[in-house]
Amino acid sequence: MTRRLPSFSFAPPVRTGKSGMFVLIAGLALSACAREPAPQGINDPNEKTNRNVHAFNRAVDKSLLRPAATTYGTVVPEPLERGVSNFASNLDAPGDVVNDLLQANPDDAIRNTVRFVVNTTVGIGGLFDPATAIGLDGSPTDFGETLHVWGAKEGRYVEVPFLGPSTTRDFAGTLVDVAFNPLRLVFEAPETYWMTGAKFASALGDRERYSATVDSVLYESADSYAQARLLYLQNRRFALGQTGAASDGASDDPNFEDPYAQ
To answer: Is 73:58 a contact under the CB 8 Å cutoff?
Structure first.
């Protein structure tokens, strides 16, 4: 099961015709061959630029995101915070189903569909998570994983403004997920604004929830850029079932802690 990293996006709703979506999907499917072999090491030829973006993201986190997340966690009651997180997660379910189908994974497609229906109806629009209570755990995925299944290479490591660590393949997947989210294609403003607001609030909740680990990587490690890069690549490759090493020596930092270690 793919584990999503906490993230948020200021991207506005993007609308496109259904025919354009199918043309894009068909074109990518036709270009697919086999799954990419496990990548080795770190492909970061634009490290200088990435480090500049990382410094910008770190400054944004320090001056805006971390204080906002702390305030959010202090002011918003825990049940309400959990409800917002549930609602935001439920918004991703239709996109998960589409990606499951594109990955030829009908079992997860059915599970995510039933989970979305249960949480949207019994869970009052997704504010509650009765699906998990009855054993229907989610199987989150994304278009970056779909590209991986179709044989697209991981590509270069890239740090994206506001979004943080990624690769060229995963960033392309993020853009597709935002542009072609089924709910964004169905709803219009102001509903889409509520969706964006819920995702942002959920990101603040994630930042507050994982503050110890994030602060350790960003502010306590000897090289926060190398640590963030290593953590992202290791976690992402593990989530995709790959075993390629991504060591650059950063794991020797005594302040480094991998929150996804089993």
So the answer is: no
Enumerate the H helices of the chain as residue ranges. 18-30, 47-60, 66-75, 78-102, 106-121, 130-133, 143-149, 168-179, 182-186, 191-209, 211-215, 224-239
* Displacement of CA 246 from its chain's centroid (Å): 20
Does the residue 47 lie in any domain?
no
Among 230, 222, 231, 235, smallest CA distance to 248 is for 230
Global model pTM greater than 0.85: no
CB 9 within 8 A of CB 199: yes
CA distance 245 to 247: 6
- In one-letter notation, the amino acid at residue 232 is Y
What range defines the domain where residue 121 resides?
79-209
pLDDT in tens, 76-100: 999 999 999 999 999 999 999 999 9
How crowded is the C-beta side of 33, counted as CA atoms within 13 Å?
4
Check if the beta carbon of residue 149 is closer than 8 Å to that of residue 108.
Answer: no
**Residue 121 is assigned to a structural domain of this protein:** yes
- Count structural domains, the chain: 1
